[in-house]
UniProtKB/TrEMBL annotation:
<feature type="domain" description="NADH:flavin oxidoreductase/NADH oxidase N-terminal">
    <location>
        <begin position="2"/>
        <end position="300"/>
    </location>
</feature>
<dbReference type="Pfam" id="PF00724">
    <property type="entry name" value="Oxidored_FMN"/>
</dbReference>
<dbReference type="GO" id="GO:0016491">
    <property type="term" value="F:oxidoreductase activity"/>
</dbReference>
<dbReference type="InterPro" id="IPR051799">
    <property type="entry name" value="NADH_flavin_oxidoreductase"/>
</dbReference>
<protein>
    <submittedName>
        <fullName>NADH:flavin oxidoreductase</fullName>
    </submittedName>
</protein>
<dbReference type="InterPro" id="IPR001155">
    <property type="entry name" value="OxRdtase_FMN_N"/>
</dbReference>
<dbReference type="GO" id="GO:0010181">
    <property type="term" value="F:FMN binding"/>
</dbReference>
<keyword id="KW-0285">Flavoprotein</keyword>
<keyword id="KW-0560">Oxidoreductase</keyword>
<dbReference type="InterPro" id="IPR013785">
    <property type="entry name" value="Aldolase_TIM"/>
</dbReference>
Length: 340
């Protein structure tokens, strides 16, 4: 699966650009089983990045339809990653910070219960737009401290309403989004959930408990476990010394599929993760470096990605837009400093 990759190459109003279309067409011919879009705004006020792809209004549908069609023609499945930045929404881009708690953003009070429900409904409406655009499903972004992850965190969420306090209450926002999408889009529309378990005050034991329930109820079709490093070990708590991945692969998951991302740069590492209990792997940086990573792996079991950093010229030659390359210059150790 292609991981959702922020690339900041859409138009300023969230419309898919010619660069988005070229990127998707390249990926569609690259052998991925499923391709996710970048993080895509479910509300205009939930924007985090300049030139972020949007799905919060019907004007976005024509460009999204072209993307879904290209992926289908290439033989893969498609998903829009649904995103709201929460308290990290960028006011300079028209974003409206929506913190779970007071004191997280200076001068901004926590959103009300009604505002939480409005954002929940925006996720559901965005999923319906994805379905209308011809996508096979959506991936709900519950990672990296964005709004659903934020509400899950006891560090960032000290609310007193039904969306705060107990683990059940803090998970309610995510559960209601997933259940709402299923009701609106039907049983044959795929739902993925991206989960991270590090930073932002998140508790591994709690997230394992929530995931266990979601697996048991088969609320989603697949879990995208976003690790910074797929090989890392748990450093504290009741699972100390175990691999973070094993904490989740050991859970009974019925018909739900589980995959992980995190420094998967070679055919060997992809194979190891399948042996460790994953149903699939998510390719991120390796797919930027070599668009057809799956085809390279299929042709060569010893395939390894080019070493980072690479020059801007290398990325340009591979077909990346200047907008995407400029975005990558902000990543640590991806584009060689000063390269043209």
């Amino acid at each position: 699966m292609l991981a959702p990759l922020t690339n900041q190459q859409s138009e300023f109003d969230g419309t898919a650009s010619e660069y988005d279309q070229t990127w998707i067409r390249q990926l569609a011919q690259s052998g991925y089983g499923l391709i996710q879009t970048c993080a895509t705004t479910v509300e205009a006020g939930g924007i985090a990045f300049a030139r972020q792809l949007g799905i919060h209004k019907d004007d976005h549908l024509p460009g999204l339809k072209m993307m879904a069609s290209a992926i289908r023609q290439g033989g893969g499945l498609s998903a829009v990653q649904l995103h709201h930045a929460g308290h990290r929404a960028n006011p300079h881009l028209g974003g409206i910070p929506a913190p779970a708690s007071n004191g997280v953003v200076d001068g901004v009070t926590a959103i009300t219960t009604e505002e939480v429900e409005t954002i929940r409904d925006s996720f559901i409406k965005a999923a319906k737009r994805a379905q209308l655009a011809g996508f096979d499903g959506v991936a709900v972004h519950g990672a990296f401290g964005w709004i659903l992850s934020e509400f899950m965190s006891p560090y960032l969420n000290n609310r007193k309403d039904k969306y705060g306090g107990s683990l059940e209450n803090r998970a309610r926002f995510t559960i209601e989004v997933i259940e709402g999408i299923r009701k609106a889009c039907g049983p044959d529309f795929q739902i993925g959930w991206r989960l991270s378990i590090e930073r932002y005050g998140l508790r591994l034991e709690e997230l394992r408990e929530v995931t266990s329930e979601i697996f048991d109820r088969e609320m989603i079709d697949y879990l995208d476990l976003a690790l910074w490093d797929s090989a890392q070990l748990v450093q504290e708590g009741s699972f100390r010394g175990k691999s973070m991945l094993s904490v989740f692969t050991e859970l009974p998951r019925k018909g739900v599929r589980l995959g992980t991302a995190g420094k998967i740069m070679s055919a060997q590492r992809a194979g190891e993760l399948l042996d460790e209990g994953c149903d699939f792997v998510l390719i991120a940086r390796a797919g930027i470096l070599q668009r057809d990573f799956p085809l390279q792996v299929k042709a060569n079991p010893n395939y390894d990605s080019p070493k980072l950093p690479v020059t801007a010229g290398y990325l340009r030659q591979g077909g990346l837009s200047e907008r995407f390359i400029n975005h990558l210059r902000g990543w640590q150790t991806f584009v060689a400093p000063g390269s043209l």
